Each structure stands twice: as C-alpha cells, then as structure tokens.
Amino acid sequence: MTDSSWCPKCGVYIFTYKGAGPHHCLPQFQVYCDEWNSIDDPCSVYANTAQDAAEKFADRYDADGDYTVVSGTNIKVKVWKLGEEHSAGTWFEVGGAPVAQYNAREMDYDDAIAMDVKAE
Q1: What is d(CA 99, CA 120) in angstroms, rounded to the nearest whole number?
Q2: Is residue 17 a part of any domain in this protein?
C-alpha cells in the first residue's frame, strides 16, 4: 500500500510505500538577500548544503517575481545554518538560465506539404 502527503515541517512531498523508512527533513538554512528580506528576517530553506539552499532560494525568488535570475540577472545571497550567527554564513552569487522546451504535434499530409516538408 502506498500513501503520500506533504511534510508539515519542510514542505517536501513524501511518497511512502511498504518498507520505506520514516521521512527525515533536510537541514534548515537561513538565506538573506538584500532585495528580498532583511538580515534579521531571513528566509528559511531546507537543503542538503548551503549552496543548494542558495539555489532553492533563487528559485523561490524568481517564482515570486519577474524571473530576473533566469533572465540573466544574478543575485547575491548570504546563507547560514539555522541556530548559527549570520556572521558565520557564506556569500553566494546565484545565476540561472531558462531551459528550452520543445513540443510536437501530429500533422496531416496537407499541412506538411503546405510547410514544404518532404513526405516519405
């Protein structure tokens, strides 16, 4: 039997199946970006590493705005583990790029001829 749900603590989607062990949240990091929040009110991000937290933050930052990071504007963020002083954090410059996506649709012969496609 399978069961699934969202973790109320870290927000990850958990797909549980027979024999699966319990879910363990990733470590929690604090992220500061002067364009988004103050150093005294950082954003919480669950991630494996500080770099991963910086990238996840950029994804969240972009989704809540004009997609400036994937459009070529880098952001500067400071990341530190929850419970540590922000002075112990690491600065990251985070950039991104849009990903191309392709779609295909079936055409009938007349449409293919109209597009000057050689039929085989």
Answers
A1: 32
A2: no
Residue 18 pLDDT exceeds 80: no
Structure tokens at 11: 């927000």
- Block residue for tokens 């954090």: 89
Say if 44 falls within a structural domain. yes
Spatial distance between the Cα atoms of 79 and 42, rounded to a whole number of angstroms: 9
What global pTM score does this model have? Answer: 0.74
Please name the helix (run of DSSP H) or strand (run of DSSP E) that holds residue 81, with its range, or none.
strand 75-81
Q: What is the pLDDT of residues 45-82, one digit of tens each?
A: 999 999 999 999 999 888 877 888 988 899 999 999 99
Q: What is the pLDDT of residue 17?
A: 76
Q: What is the CA radius of gyration of the chain?
A: 22
Question: Which structural domain range is residue 63 located in?
Answer: 26-94
Domain count for the chain? 1
Structure tokens at 30: 């604090």
Task: Supply 4's token pair.
Answer: 């699934």
In total, the chain counts a number of residues equal to: 120
Kindly state whether residue 60 falls inside one of the protein's structural domains.
Answer: yes
Domain membership flag for residue 7:
no
Indicate the residue type of 84: E
